[in-house]
């Protein structure tokens, strides 16, 4: 995943953008919002401050998020084709039911993964949609005719931060090839509870029917042989990888290439694994599946999609 489109720089979009820039620093973010910052936005839209009031939200946010660009426009029929060019993932945090359903339909039709988030009053929800999975319209069929918006009903600011962060986590799972689909997560901020509602695709869903036949036939979760290489990170190194225990690495034909790609995503980890000459440090073991690569071709050990590369400190409490 290289480029993500984020709709709405409100209470959800702000924490989602901030979290994504930390979780996936290599990701290019396209931030879309037609509105300007208002003073009433500041308690829940955490990217903005007093100096941003009156400025376009997309521009103000892009200045504070690395590898981001702004689009001061609305996501609608006249702009969808241009905005979705080269997009690998969409995150929708808009506060408009019609836009949410239009975003769902476009993503389903084009085969673009979608992370949908919403919050109003004391309630929040999250849904991930990928090719072949149940979509927003499978569950709700159509936008509500008279449902209140966040602006009308209000929303709990901490709830926005929670849902926005969960949207970023869902995007990370999509990038790792293990999206959580077919379940609508619902938060009740009054009780502090979250309830998953599982549902299946509706064979009569108008959005899914319009999806290309090839996309409908594709599997959501790839078989193990089609999955990227997974690198397992030991606990001492997780502070360098945003506390992730497993990281998906693509386009790596050898152990050396996998470590280079891992280092590109998380630069601090390379020095912990390789010495100044580019050789494995003595206190680090690397296993391809269950095989110690030192017993084979070392860093030149070939990898294929679906392999698991495990980093294991050779000495407990060592320098790692």
Overview features:
320 residues, alpha/beta, Rossmann fold, Ubiquitin-like (UB roll), 2 domains, 5-stranded mixed β-sheet, disordered C terminus
Description:
- With 320 residues, the protein is an alpha/beta fold.
- The chain has two domains: 3-217, Rossmann fold; 224-313, Roll (Ubiquitin-like (UB roll)), CATH 3.10.20.30.
- Helix content is 28%, strand content 20%.
- It contains eleven helices and 13 strands.
- It has helices spanning 13-23, 57-62, 80-83, 97-110, 136-140, 150-153, 157-175, 206-210, 213-217, 255-265, 270-273, and strands at 3-7, 28-32, 68-71, 89-92, 114-120, 123-129, 183-188, 193-198, 229-232, 246-249, 284-288, 291-292, 308-313.
- It has an eight-stranded mixed sheet with strand order 3-2-1-4-5-6-7-8, sandwiched between helices. It has a five-stranded mixed sheet with strand order 10-9-13-11-12, covered by helices on one side.
- Strand 4, helix 4 and strand 5 (114-120) form a beta-alpha-beta unit.
- The radius of gyration is 21 Å and the shape is globular.
Layout of strands and helices, then pairs:
Elements: E1 3-7, H1 13-23, E2 28-32, H2 57-62, E3 68-71, H3 80-83, E4 89-92, H4 97-110, E5 114-120, E6 123-129, H5 136-140, H6 150-153, H7 157-175, E7 183-188, E8 193-198, H8 206-210, H9 213-217, E9 229-232, E10 246-249, H10 255-265, H11 270-273, E11 284-288, E12 291-292, E13 308-313
Parallel strand pairs: 1-2, 1-4, 2-3, 4-5, 9-13
Antiparallel strand pairs: 5-6, 6-7, 7-8, 9-10, 11-12, 11-13
Helix pairs in contact: 1-7
